[in-house]
């Protein structure tokens, strides 16, 4: 199943529940603008590489469009389109004044030197600088990009448009970035895990956690949960998975990863298992925090978790999602679970527009406030309408976009 089919499936199910008519569905589903550009770059060895970059701007009924920029070898228009749509529902569920967008370049970032990465970024911005900015569409980091890439984006965009750091978020703190942006998505996942357990009357100490992915999101989620006394028993990255039944030493693993180019390869403080085994590990909470489409019809029957929090975008395909729901496994969906990142990006944008810096404590408190509201709204809709947290989240997000669209008039 293509990424866009899967997001459309979830959309239609929720749209049925809120009685959305056909023409409005069509309007809300289609992207406002889809851009595909050629990015020709000279590589370090002198040869010319022609890459393809995308920016899909899905909807701006609730505010400027917002979404990450991904460097990954599987990026294509269909994936970017689906992710842009997800951003629209995500910003609406979090109730922050944004629409949704997404971008990406089809390239393997691990195969690039820093200077190649910089040239690719700047060339891409040369192609798309006139379609984004503080009041239209604000990019941010995603898989394969980081705060350094955001600093290059700002610098390149400002060459055309003048000083305005609000044109991109996820920048380094020394470059008008927000305190707490780097940790925000993983921290948000952790905060939501605590709220979920509280609702279910389960103690963190009695909760085993398995996390797929140890990049920005996975590692910060692991750190937060470890500090909150959850028992993180397995984590993985692209090099493989690491398991210890009595709990991993997350502090040591974070240090090891940072000293080894943000990879766990060679870590010997745990048993090594495969990524397939990791997903099938018996646990209370499973957190896919790497890539999309990892839980499918083929492996869903091996899942032994009681709860899943989707830290990555689209890790569960619809047919697997239904089986999990029927099997009583509670799934907090991506559009709620990983909204911490875009929420702190919103705080960064607000600070940039006001030229005023918030403390880390303020960022963390406001993040907690936004996610608590979002979680409680979803929980209430889920209970009242007797639907899954995913359908409840989509119902809330879609309806907020519908109301804003109708108020503005077509
Ligand atoms: P990242 O590039 O920092 O980390 C990705 C991690 O996944 C790495 O540890 C990598 O080794 C691992 N990985 C990649 N392929 C894998 C595989 N096949 N099996 C196991 N591990 C694998 O990316 P990130 O920023 O942490 O993003 C992770 C996910 O979270 C993505 O789906 C992204 O869209 C989503 N997300 C990120 C943010 C953010 O603020 N960074 C916000 C919202 C959603």
Give me the secondary-structure topology:
Layout: H1 3-17, H2 22-29, E1 33-42, E2 48-59, E3 65-72, H3 77-94, E4 99-106, H4 114-128, E5 137-141, H5 147-161, H6 181-200, E6 208-212, H7 216-227, E7 231-237, E8 240-243, H8 250-259, E9 271-273, H9 275-279, E10 283-288, E11 305-309, H10 318-326, E12 330-332, H11 334-337, H12 339-354, H13 360-385, H14 389-408
Parallel strand pairs: 3-4, 3-5, 6-7, 6-10, 10-11, 11-12
Antiparallel strand pairs: 1-2, 2-4, 7-8, 8-9
The chain binds nicotinamide-adenine-dinucleotide.
Nicotinamide-adenine-dinucleotide (NAD) binds next to helix 7 and strand 7.
Largest sheet: 7 strands, mixed
- Helical percentage: 40-55%
Tally the structural domains: 2
Anisotropy-based shape? globular
Low-confidence stretches: none
User: Strand arrangement, largest sheet?
Assistant: 9-8-7-6-10-11-12
CA radius of gyration: 20 Å
Total strand count, please?
A: 12
What is the top-level CATH class of the largest domain? Alpha Beta
Task: Quote the CATH topology of the largest domain.
Answer: Rossmann fold
* H-E string: HHEEEHEHEHHEHEEHEHEEHEHHHH
User: From the coordinates shown, what is the CATH architecture of the largest domain?
Assistant: 3-Layer(aba) Sandwich
Structural class: alpha/beta
Tell me the name of the CATH homologous superfamily of the largest domain.
NAD(P)-binding Rossmann-like Domain
- Mean pLDDT equals 97
């Amino acid at each position: 199943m293509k990424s866009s089919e899967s997001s459309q499936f979830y959309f239609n199910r929720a749209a049925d529940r809120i009685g959305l008519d056909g023409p409005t569905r069509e309007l809300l589903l289609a992207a406002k603008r889809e851009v595909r550009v050629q990015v020709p770059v000279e590589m370090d060895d002198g040869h010319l590489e022609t890459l393809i970059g995308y920016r899909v701007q899905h909807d701006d009924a609730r505010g400027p469009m917002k979404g990450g920029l991904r460097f990954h070898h599987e990026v294509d228009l269909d994936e970017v389109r689906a992710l842009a749509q997800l951003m629209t529902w995500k910003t609406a569920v979090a109730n922050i004044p944004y629409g949704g967008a997404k971008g990406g370049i089809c390239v393997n970032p691990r195969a690039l030197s820093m200077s190649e990465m910089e040239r690719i970024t700047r060339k891409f911005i040369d192609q798309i600088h006139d379609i984004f900015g503080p009041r239209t569409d604000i990019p941010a980091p995603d898989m394969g990009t980081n705060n350094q890439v955001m600093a290059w984006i700002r610098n390149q965009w400002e060459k055309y448009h003048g000083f305005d750091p609000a044109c991109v978020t996820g920048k380094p703190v020394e470059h008008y970035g927000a305190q707490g942006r780097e940790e925000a998505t993983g921290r948000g996942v952790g905060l939501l895990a605590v709220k979920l357990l509280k609702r279910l009357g389960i103690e963190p100490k009695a909760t085993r956690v398995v996390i797929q992915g140890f990049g920005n999101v996975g590692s910060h989620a692991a750190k937060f949960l470890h500090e909150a006394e959850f028992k993180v028993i397995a984590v993985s990255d692209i090099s493989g998975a690491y398991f210890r039944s009595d709990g991993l030493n997350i502090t040591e693993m974070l240090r090891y990863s940072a000293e080894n180019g943000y990879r766990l390869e060679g870590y010997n403080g745990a048993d090594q298992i495969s990524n397939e085994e990791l997903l099938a590990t018996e646990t209370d909470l499973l957190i896919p925090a790497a890539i999309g489409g990892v839980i499918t019809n083929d492996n869903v029957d091996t899942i032994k978790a009681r709860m899943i929090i989707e830290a990555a975008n689209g890790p569960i395909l619809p047919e697997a999602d239904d089986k999990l729901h029927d099997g009583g496994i509670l799934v907090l969906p991506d559009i709620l679970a990983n909204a911490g990142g875009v929420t702190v990006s919103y705080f960064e944008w607000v600070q940039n527009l006001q030229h005023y810096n918030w403390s880390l404590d303020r960022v963390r408190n406001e993040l907690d406030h936004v996610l608590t509201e979002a979680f409680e709204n979803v929980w209430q809709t889920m209970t009242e309408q007797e639907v899954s947290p995913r359908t409840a989240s989509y119902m809330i997000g879609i309806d907020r976009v519908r109301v804003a669209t109708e108020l503005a008039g077509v």
